[in-house]
Structures
1.
Amino acid sequence: MRKVACFLLLALILLSGCVQVPIQRTEAKDVKIELKVDTTNIQAGGKVGVSIIVENYADFEIRNITARIYGLPDWKGELEKIENYSGILYPETGFEFNWQLEAPSDVKYKKYYQVFADVKYNAYNKKRVMITGISYDYYKRTGSGSGITSSSSLGGPIEIDFVPYQSQLIAYEDKLPFKFAVVISNKGRGKPCADYFTLNCSKEKLNKVLFNFTKETSGIEITCEKGGEVNLIKSGSYAHFDCIGNLTNVKEVSTQIIEFLVNYTYMETLTSPSIGVEPVLL
């Protein structure tokens, strides 16, 4: 089993034992996983190379990647065994798992097989939310705007968005109440689970993520309807809940910052094209 991590900055350098994995930044901040076979038609007893390529186009690091291939009865090779990459897959880097498998030698007629694969990895997404409130007197004097904005996404399969309920945040007293919705959505083709540290993805943790927030400034009070393990409904599609709070001691302009963090293990199941195995003609 050969496992390789190739960085973009080294993509043009040929190193002994390094399988070049092309990585080129795209507009989509995504994690791309491909299952490939080097042939789809062989004779009985022939060999097939199988590859799983993980490419990180997101703006976060991927950790603890595992891969397993299965679904080939009577084939020889490292089937069912879980392979691990314990390194860190930084943005704009790729990693490749490789297997060499041997088809059954006693095939009497042409048979078709498919390779199935499970891939898991640890990932996260985070955003900073800026809540700006202004006093009524300041608003009357300047006409300045206020409201809730957020930083850009780090990408990946799990997205986090914020929907404010108020278009303006104007304080008529020292405390200024606010409210916004948090939407966590699964935009990938796999499933999240809240077994972030173990990668087990047990049934109880499936379709869940770990949600938390940290106040970066002191002039704010906030509570959210959910925290810790958050269930994504519709078979892991999305979660929707509210956060409410107050900006405290708003004299003229008050901008408060909160960082929201979602940790998760993500798992994808992949299927190869059909591989035709023909009997050897004597």
2.
Amino acid sequence: MRYISGLKTLAKDFYHYNFSGMNELFSYDDTHEDNIEIFMKDNSFLEIPKVIWMYWDDASIPPYISLMIDKIRNDNKDHDLVVLNKNNLVSYIEDLKFSSDKYIPIANKSDIIRLELLKRYGGIWIDSSVILTKPISWVHDINKDKKVDLIGYYRDVSTKDRMYPIVESWFLCSQKNNLFINEWLDVLSPLKEMGAKEYFNMIKSRPDYEVILQGIHKPDYLLVYLAQQIAMRKINFNLFSKRSESSAFLYQENESWNSSAIARDLCIKKSPITLPPVIKLTNDNRRGIEKLIKLKLVKKDSIIGKLMSGAL
């Protein structure tokens, strides 16, 4: 009965967006950006290598995720794009081992993997669930101008102290062997042997836990952010971070994180004139999109429709 009810809701929304005159998604406005720039030390310019790292644990990637990856590849031909999985990872990080006796979620393993890759090779880490709507050259422009250790996106709702913003791990840009990335990885690395529960309990027992916690939601899962906050307080760093809610999570914020509404916005509403340069999809967003794709309710002029046709 729940499935039938869900279908009725989707059908109702489909016709609502088609005939109500409210079928165009609003445009991104860069004047609403609220970047955080932190400069604690003098940096010489070091180039961020033109390599994009992505990871999907299973070698079999959903078709629309493959289209997102292909778009990034096609729009950034001056970059090498490396898509890793659990089978080919050893070719790049041959000595990485996780305890077989402790529970470590794939997400936590992936966080260690991205920091290992950035430490060893540098470059740009992008989660496979990210849609890039413009070339990544803006990252290199920022680095050349600002000479920073890290370029990324911070979560405003989680950040209580703007000197130590909660930088999201799904988009990270850095040079090879960067001191901040190295420190972040060093703080997180005990997780490989301790497992997620023991590692979290260790962090939670720290006298400064409430300080580093800030507004992090589900800290026992987002261990990489706790490790980041510890690293930020151990060494000086330079950072350029864009506000997630102003761009990457713009449409999620507009729908108060209602996954069904977000999926409909991306799959049914007409794509706006100006898109955010980055659109991040959460697991819930992906499930909603997959449902609409399966039901063949994706409109050709929507964001996902244009992605699927190669017109985005």
3.
Amino acid sequence: MSLIARENKYIKRIVFSFLLFLISLLIYSLSPNLPTSYAADSNETNILTLEDALKIAKENNKTLQAQYYQMQSAKETYIQALGYRLPNITGSLNYERIRTMSTNNASYGSKDDFSYSLNANQLLYDFGATNSYIQSVYHTYKQSEKQYLDTLRQIEYQVKQSYLNVLSAKQLYDTAKEGLNLANLILKYTQSEFDVGLVARSDVLSAEVEVQNAKISLLNAKNQINVSLANLANVLGYDPRKSFTISQIAYKNSPKSISTSFADQIFSIAIKNRPDIAAIVESIDVANYTLKNLKSSLYPKINLVADYSRSDSKFPPENYSWFYGITATVTFYNGGQNISKIRQEQDTLNYLIKTKDNLEDSVKLAVWTDILNLNNAYSTFELSDAAVKSAEENLKVNEAQYKEGLNSIIDLTTARNNYIAAKNQRIINEYNYYLSLATLERDLGVKFFNIENY
């Protein structure tokens, strides 16, 4: 084989390998990628965690989106206000056709008139009025930013509440299903006992009634799941008919009480993190700078002005003029309007300061109430846990006694109902605990609160 033939063969191998690499890369890029936030097994259903739900609501919730655009509008107003520090330059171009007439309608002919001008105006000093106005607008923007965060705080609580509602509804549905299974089992026991003449027909009828009631409870529990899912979809910004598969838990930490000795420390967290408190602090700054702006209006405003103009009957005009100078403007008397505005703004400032103090007191009360409610929910949850164990043991005893003919269908049905009621109450108490925790997080102004540290 010649040298040229070997080189051609070598080049063909390189080209073939390169094409194979490109094809492999194309196939890989077109293959579906599984989201990292969900299960790796493609056969598993996507699981919506509470953290996922909070992220989705932040992006999709309509109320939050409206608040966001209001915040952006305030930001643009601030950017506009910054322009008051810069020169104001305007230009004009004019053309006129002038025809001069005498009183007896005699015409003296017509002529063209061309003119253009360039004007400049630069603020030199206004005793801080412009800077105060800009700062006022800036803090108005920051206030809208805090209001957005406060809306987010409320939305996050709604998401947690809706998510917990779905979890609770699913658990109550499982209990209702267990109740139906127990009712069917009791009916089976009773029917077999009736078949051999050990119980009356009325016992069978009573057991059948319990089965029907259990079916009704199961239907209601299923409907409650659908309603809870619709509410969750709505707060996430989706169509209420959208369905989700949610995680089995919302919070990773187990129920725990809070030591009241940490109350002052928890209060300080709320005062520091609550966006509505931060918003009213910004509004106080707005009032302060507005007050400075109004006081500055009592003093002269000094501007540098300049003008350059050209005019002629032909274009481009050749006759020109220019000037520059300094102007000072001051209001000597306007019926006391400025003084009245200053007094009004001072009253507004005092009102906002008192409102902030009142809000901080309200926040402390809300947080303290949340701590009490959470500790009470924890205690009732602990008691309900013990109640479920007792009710389950009582049910087993009554089942054994019923099989031996030592008690009636009424005793067995009562034991079954007590067991289901105890499980339902345990679910409700657990829901109340985590809802109390979500309420505490809302009133603290935090997304999640590490209760283990308190």
